[in-house]
Amino acid sequence: MSAHPQLSVVVPVHNEEDNVAPLVAEILAALRGRIDFEIVYVDDTSRDATLQRLRQLQASTPELRVIRHLANAGQSTAVRNGVKAARAPWIATLDGDGQNDPADIPHLLDKRASAVADVKLFAGWRVNRQDSGSKRWASKWANAIRSRMLHDATPDTGCGIKLFEREAFLDLPYFDHMHRYLPALMQRAGWQTVSVPVNHRHRTAGVSKYNNLGRALAGIRDLRGVAWLIVRSRRTAVEEVTP
């Protein structure tokens, strides 16, 4: 593995022991021979064998790096810590439950290759979601409310598979659940974003870490905060003055 990879794949996990090995294998199949990459797993204090499985995989997977939270901090913090630890200028993120398809990462890279330089985020769009009816219904309404308040022109901000520039991401304001508002935050910073249709799969192992009510209550508070950030934003181009 190179000390200067072109792409870092960041995967936050919490109690996903049975999903670790299959997902790592799929990432390797999708990217080996295509791009110089690393995989950065962030274990958010799993109570099962997730960390043990990751350590075992490191022996046979030179691309794999593992970071462990010392206290439970949630998905947004795990993503941010993974991005901070990453060594590549571009980041791909995947949910650790296996519902995102690593085979879509090359598709996102192709979209980046043909895009203008101001596009800093390529967001996955689950056009055929494989979740329960209640979860799809809740997501539909949440996306509609978010779009009306933030005007981010993004049909699906909850999809875990994304491709973005590391520097642009780390320049964004950080708060819990920020990973659900990346298109609006990137646009607030002056960058363009693109939604890309991607595959979505059934969860085959483990259980979801979220419920619809919890998401709704947190989402209302977060939406108000992001809307305030957008209203209070001010940008200007700068230039260096030389003698």
UniProtKB/TrEMBL annotation:
Pfam families: Glycos_transf_2. The keyword Membrane applies. Keywords: Cell membrane, Glycosyltransferase, Lipopolysaccharide biosynthesis, Membrane, Transferase, Transmembrane, Transmembrane helix. The keyword Glycosyltransferase applies. Residues 8-169 form the Glycosyltransferase 2-like domain. This is Glycosyltransferase family 2 protein. The lineage of its organism: Bacteria, Pseudomonadati, Pseudomonadota, Gammaproteobacteria, Lysobacterales.
